[in-house]
């Protein structure tokens, strides 16, 4: 081999400092891992790793503190926004975020999240909506789709007796305290890039002291949905997005000038 | 020394401020609300954090977050609100964090009423939340003692990475008395090696109460227990009155002890050799004091504003050696000194029966009266 024909290696992809490198426990194909990584990349890009405190919730992401390389605390089921409030009020110059599933945020923790948003609590929330309780084995969540089969709605969610799904982003868009409320999806590279931008915007909202920010991330749970990751992605696209439209539900005017 | 006339709840709030509390989170509930109201203006005035939470669940988890930073933090509530907080209390215990909680007890169970009661002794002293943990529980009987124990509470919380409960009630919380407030302490500037504040210049840290491995959880449980042995060795506090030559003893905590003391003083004036034992730390409980009671003591009367919750701890500590009777008012009814005096007279006139349980004999007396 002639040396002149060798190209100098350049690194085009590497593990962000904000990821520990620990092997995750997420199931193959699960989008939790993508969301974890996006948050890590954004925190790296903002140079905020040493000034960030994460609040883990209860759900499949409970061990997120093993994957993200920064200070972390772990909240009781649904209470992450309250813990984040306590931290942020004592340390206002730190960047504080919660990472919560749909059972955690929209069921048991609905009071905590609504009031954090209504207070305009200056925290960022990453809300993984996979339309079920992943960790406990796929029970019905407040976000489960009408007709969706889960282990606790085995013939499909019957809205007559089990009620209707909650569209969290739409609901929060009516709260004056909320400054940045958007819904994104993790089903393909284009949407993943858009999700990353939204995560950045949420943190920018906080860093600018503009108040509550939340990114809802439509996600898949192949294990409990009982279909392959590929079919899960299809299901997300065909069933979830029409019910949970992607888009910006509330954007503080001061955010308009930020170009990513 | 300068004395100020202050309401119990407000005096505790100001004492906490002076002890260096940096954040307060609470929710309104009578008879505790003045504490929250006081903090709502006092904390922002000093640039410190105050949030009126959406519920006691919210409040205790805000405290949980704030405690993770290593700064001093607290909440306050009354019985039904404290029940709601117990999830968070268990997690805070499981994460080994210092924090102070003031429980201004009222009548129960259920919504009960807003009158003073002591019916949450077991809840605070013997658990409440899930899992194997203990809280240090301090029981003041006056506004001044509430102030002093508040300062102590923050020190003990930090020293033992422990939850410290100030267990008081509607009468002590609401009464106004002259008290001397402590000096304003500087805020903490150095922090323990577990405090989560962002990992600038150090390895990152995380705080959690999860131990999926039972062996690791057992290790944690041992650690809590070992720490508790230190607490028991160093922190038991108990006040004795007229015990030197006592032939009879009355015992109780907080308000009931204070009322009983009035009765004891009258009895002393009548020439009855009666003394009083008042545990200040309900947890750790001053077991030795009851274990060591002289054989000369002819009878002991336990007075509470609950159906004999501390009574069980007294009996166990005393190993049923001293003939013991019980007297209580329940549901938010506060006993009069006269009622306790009557019980002292009865104890002196007719030797205490040792048949059955003191609670059963007391109830039989109550029912017989109709
Ligand atoms: C107080 C309490 N109730 C119930 C549970 C059990 N539990 C653990 S995770 C979970 C559901 C989590 O679902 P979600 O928030 O949607 O997260 P996912 O696993 O789907 O990511 C439940 C009910 C718990 N840990 N604590
Ligand atoms: S159970 Fe579902 S949400 Fe949980 S890790 Fe597996 S695929 Fe992901
Ligand atoms: Mg879920």
Strand order of the largest sheet of chain B: 3-2-4-5-7-6-13
The tally of helices of chain A reads 10
Q: Let me know the largest β-sheet of chain A.
A: 7 strands, mixed
Tell me, rounded to a whole number, the average pLDDT of chain A.
Answer: 96
CATH class of the largest domain in chain B: Alpha Beta
Largest sheet of chain B: 7 strands, mixed
Kindly report the oligomeric state of this protein.
Answer: heterodimer
N-end to C-end Cα span of chain A: 44 Å
- CATH fold-type name of the largest domain in chain B: Rossmann fold
Low-confidence stretches of chain B are: none
**At the fourth CATH level, what is the homologous superfamily of chain A?**
Thiamin diphosphate (ThDP)-binding fold, Pyr/PP domains
Alpha-beta classification of chain B: alpha/beta
CATH topology heading of chain A: Rossmann fold
Our estimate of the beta-strand percent of chain A is: 15-25%
| End-to-end separation of chain B | 51 Å
Q: Largest interface, with Cβ-Cβ < 8 Å?
A: A-B, 34 and 40 residues
Describe the protein.
The complex is a heterodimer of chains A (260) and B (370). With 260 residues, chain A is an alpha/beta fold. Chain A has one domain (15-255): 3-Layer(aba) Sandwich (Rossmann fold). Chain A is 36% helix and 16% strand. Chain A has helices at residues 32-46, 64-67, 80-90, 102-108, 110-118, 159-162, 168-172, 189-207, 222-225, 229-243, and strands at 52-56, 71-74, 95-101, 124-129, 178-185, 212-218, 247-251. In chain A, strands 2-1-3-4-6-5-7 form a 7-stranded mixed sheet, sandwiched between helices. In chain A, strand 1, helix 2 and strand 2 (71-74) form a beta-alpha-beta unit. Chain A is globular, with a radius of gyration of 19 Å. The mean pLDDT of chain A is 96. Chain B has 370 residues and is an alpha/beta fold. Chain B folds into 2 domains: 4-234, Rossmann fold (3-Layer(aba) Sandwich); 238-369, Rossmann fold (3-Layer(aba) Sandwich), CATH 3.40.50.920. Chain B has helices spanning 8-18, 33-45, 56-68, 79-94, 121-125, 143-160, 170-174, 214-234, 254-269, 287-291, 309-318, 337-349, 358-369; strands at 4-7, 23-26, 49-52, 73-77, 99-105, 136-138, 163-169, 176-179, 206-207, 238-241, 248-251, 274-279, 281-283, 299-304, 324-328. In chain B, the strands form 3 sheets. In chain B, strands 3-2-4-5-7-6-13 form a 7-stranded mixed sheet, with helices on both faces. A 5-stranded mixed sheet of chain B has the order 10-12-11-14-15, with helices on both faces. In chain B, strands 1-8 form a two-stranded antiparallel sheet. In chain B, helix 1 (8-18) runs parallel beside helix 6 (143-160), helix 3 (56-68) runs parallel beside helix 4 and helix 9 crosses helix 12 (337-349). Chain B is globular. The mean pLDDT of chain B is 97. Chain A binds chain B through residues 49-53, 55-56, 62, 65, 69-76, 79, 82-91, 94, 111-112, 114-115, 119, and chain B through 22-23, 25, 49, 51, 53-55, 57-69, 71, 73, 87-88, 91, 95, 196-201, 204-210.
